[in-house]
Design goal:
heterotrimer, A mainly alpha, B mainly alpha, C alpha+beta, A: mainly alpha, Ferritin, 9 helices, globular, C: alpha+beta, 3-stranded antiparallel sheet, 2 helices, binds fe (ii) ion
């Protein structure tokens, strides 16, 4: 039996990620990329909704209850996805780490004995494969582009890398495959695998960075201002 | 077939056909302005993506704003068939030499504004755009067919937002009414100045770029919208709206175009923000675009070597 | 700095049909052009297969030579089945 907390962790990862991704629509480096990032954000939001609805069946709450009426101490997402991001290199570095992990995770969950979760994973695994491809394409181009883009991409990777570890909490067996995939992209991008100490994140236990509070304040404010209203 | 003959037969002009310079210039200006409007139009609604009050609404809004990026993209591509570059058109937008629709210089102050934009602004856009599907210039007409297919979902989702609000709590209903009050008149202005005051219209009609006059389209929009407002249970902020049996149309009040001209001049509530947002996105993305070009030329020189 | 090159996009809407031109887009290279085409032109399940090619590589007939190119086919009515009289009662012809 899957625990609601576990499902909420995956749901919150996707939701918070989608919330950050939505920021890019109208701010991407090129019109084509506005569409691409919106597609990724929409996939993530769709995953979040399926997972929240599933968690909701265990907790007797709706997807919106769970998205809008929990405080940050009740959110279960990792730190990787919650920090602010307004640099395209950072967004692509983060998406590379996140989707490489999601790809392995969902591939494993497809055969889960929990049929609902397996169903959600079956759909999500195809989506995150595309996200991983998109992030890989960009990390390679930025890494192996101009001198400026090379150093910016390296800096972005260095900044995101410490948050990779938290993803493996509870599932260390995913690490080799995820790292192999990431390192292959990093090498093709002529970048160096960062040698930085991991940050001890506590997202799965409801301990977050200061940034999540602001993200939720913005996301939840309208919904909470009209208790009980339908939209 | 010579240009004039083609038009007389209601044929379509295609990119490499001979065409008068003025026709080409008019099309470039109109299509570019249309494309600019689509991408600047992402901002007022994009403003609410992070705050959408339910996850369902958030998904719909993200998809809608994304569609507008697509519309801009299709239209820039149509303009490029006339021998201009998208980069140059964007440059003209960023330096204020080309305009976009003034409607997007109004702020989205509440969630209900997202509904009002979908219902009224996309609604007015559809009335303007449906005839453009038969525009004499092939690539523009084809882009508009694609755009119009996508637009109908935009208007419906806006209507649905307002319908839900006006049947919700008193605060929600007030929010919906306030949004309609603010967006009604600017929406009517989207059809442009009155016919007697629209010097280029006659030429555009003769060229088959424009199929109906500004005032005809405005009337069509009013006729379509008034009954919908009744179903929404919202009032349109014009005491002069009433059915005119004789004309077979709704009468409505006079649009105050001095406001429109102020906004066009750059004195609207959000002109500066919209431009600053757009220019910043473009400048912040320069290193990314350059990197991709550099990577591509490295790869192609490797392939040659 | 010039924009990325322009690409033409062709989409097969379902198996059994030809790829049809749907529009164009900008992309730095072929791989990104294909991905952008997926994101721009198949958001509503419009396709099962995509071709992209650089717009600059297209060779087009000249509209000025349209008469020389296409007029000669106009009088070959015998190429069309409706040209032929079929006696009453003949089926499956
Ligand atoms: Fe649009
Ligand atoms: Fe629209």
């Amino acid at each position: 039996m899957t625990s609601a907390d576990y499902v909420l962790g995956l749901a919150d990862d996707a939701l918070v990620s989608a919330q950050r991704m939505g920021w890019w629509i109208s701010r991407a480096p090129q019109l084509e990329e506005d569409l691409a990032l919106a597609n990724i954000g929409l996939d993530q939001l769709g995953q979040a909704r399926s997972l929240l609805s599933y968690a909701g069946t265990m907790l007797d709450r709706t997807e919106d209850d769970l998205a809008y009426l929990r405080d940050d101490r009740e959110f279960r997402n990792v730190w990787l996805v919650e920090r602010p991001q307004t640099d395209f290199g950072v967004t692509m570095a983060r998406l590379l780490l996140f989707s490489a992990w999601q790809r392995e995770l969902y591939a494993a969950l497809v055969t889960s004995s929990d049929a609902t979760l397996a169903g959600i994973a079956g759909k999500a695994v195809k989506e995150v494969a595309y996200h991983l491809d998109h992030a890989s394409q960009w990390v390679i181009r930025l890494g192996d582009g101009t001198d400026e883009s090379h150093s910016r991409m390296q800096a972005a990777l260095d900044a995101e890398w410490p948050y990779l570890d938290e993803l493996f909490e509870g599932a260390p067996e995913l690490r080799p495959a995820v790292l192999a995939r990431i390192e292959q992209v990093v090498a093709e991008a002529t970048l160096a695998v960062p040698e930085v100490a991991p940050v001890v994140g506590g997202g799965r236990h409801g301990l977050h960075t200061e940034h999540l509070g602001y993200l939720l304040a913005e996301m939840q404010h309208l919904h909470r201002s009209h208790p009980g209203a339908t939209w | 077939m010579p240009f004039e003959e083609l038009l007389a037969e209601d044929g379509r002009v295609e990119p490499r056909d001979e065409m008068p310079d003025a026709y080409r210039r008019t099309l470039v200006r109109q299509i570019a302005q249309h494309a600019h409007s689509e991408i600047i139009g992402m901002q007022p609604e994009g403003n609410w993506i992070s705050r959408a009050p339910s996850l369902r609404r958030k998904a719909i809004l993200m998809a809608k704003v994304q569609d507008e990026a697509g519309h801009g993209l299709y239209l820039y591509a149509a303009a490029e068939t006339l021998g201009v570059d998208r980069e140059d058109l964007l440059d003209q937008l960023h330096t204020g030499r080309q305009k976009y629709s003034s409607i997007f210089n109004y702020p989205t102050l509440t969630w209900a504004d997202v509904g009002a934009i979908g219902w009224l602004v996309d609604g007015a856009a559809i009335v303007n755009q449906v005839p453009l599907c038969r525009c004499s210039y092939g690539p523009y007409a084809r882009a508009m067919v694609r755009v119009c297919k996508e637009e109908s979902f935009h208007q419906r989702q806006g209507f649905e937002i307002l319908h839900t609000l006006s049947h919700g709590t008193p605060a929600q209903k007030a929010m919906a009414q306030d949004a309609v009050d603010r967006y009604w008149w600017p929406s009517l202005m989207m059809f442009g100045p009155p016919d007697d005051d629209s010097p280029n219209s006659a030429q555009s009609m003769a060229w088959g770029i424009k199929r109906f006059s500004n005032d005809d389209l405005r009337q069509r929009f009013v006729d379509m919208t008034v009954p919908q407002a009744e179903i929404l249970g919202l009032t349109l902020p014009d005491p002069e709206i009433r059915w005119n049996e004789e004309r077979g149309h709704y009468d409505f009040g006079t649009v105050d175009f001095t406001e429109l001209f102020e906004v066009i001049k750059g004195n609207g509530p959000c002109n500066a923000e919209r431009m600053a947002h757009r220019v910043k996105a473009h400048e912040d993305g320069a290193w990314v675009r350059e990197a991709a070009s550099a990577y591509a030329s490295k790869r192609s020189s490797e392939a040659v070597a | 700095m010039r924009d990325w090159p322009l690409w033409e996009v062709f989409v097969r809407s379902r198996r059994g049909l030809s790829h049809v031109h749907v529009g164009s887009l900008h992309a730095p290279d072929a791989e990104m052009a294909l991905r952008n085409a997926r994101d721009v032109y198949t958001r509503r399940q419009e396709g099962v297969s995509i071709w992209v090619l650089p717009s600059a590589e297209i060779v087009a007939s000249d509209p000025g030579e349209r008469d020389a190119f296409f007029e000669p086919a106009a009088d070959k009515v015998y190429r069309h089945p409706t040209f032929y009289d079929v006696p009453e009662g003949v089926e499956h012809l």
